[in-house]
Please model this.
Amino acid sequence: SYVLTQPPSVSVAPGKTASISCGGNNIGSKSVHWYQQKPDQAPVPVIFYNNDRPSGIPERFSGSKSGNTATLTISRVEAGDEADYYCQVWDSTSDHVLFGGGTKLTVL
Amino acid sequence: EVQLLESGGGLVQPGGSLRLSCAASGFTFSSYAMGWVRQAPGKGLEWVSAISASGSRTYYADSVKGRFTISRDNSKNTFNVQMDSLTVDDTAVYFCAKDRNHLSRGVFDIWGQGTMVTVSS
Model:
């Protein structure tokens, strides 16, 4: 079955750039979505379809893909960006929605 | 205001059943697929099930297939998941979510606040 692999944690200083990776076989052929989840809250979408920001999401959030890896990039990181981030795809072979294991972003 | 509100969570014994409901408002419910995503305590997100806009297509994670049944009532703007043969591994917060498509593609733009399901003796 299809698997999405994320690093468990990423740390970044305020004002710097954070990059969160999401690896998957042939991920270039899939649309990748990203969600932010803060403690005891529901997930919030931050990127749809690889690099489309939903309304209300700052331009500091962007997505990209290269090879077998998708990346969420957060520029000029703020304390309020500290959260868990999940990548997600639709696997048409199995008709399943798949989430990555999640990455905890810590703002130092 | 676009909103999803879950209900039906609670404590149930292993082997028991529970029915979760999600009430939608603020959008044309019958035009969108809907889904359930769960999160076990301290764990990541896990997709559970989804249903197409018309209700004609249903989708299930392997971990719940044969035990959970998803349904919807477009006249009442609600959808449900009937959970049978529950095990301790089903203990989680269950979120309902709206898809941006009429078929399930997991593009969840609106989420409910979640309802806790605890399976324990």
About this structure: The mean pLDDT of chain B is 97. Chain B is about 0% helix and 50% strand. Chain B touches chain A at residues 35, 37, 44-47, 50, 59, 61-62, 95, 100, 104-109, 111-114 (CB under 8 Å).
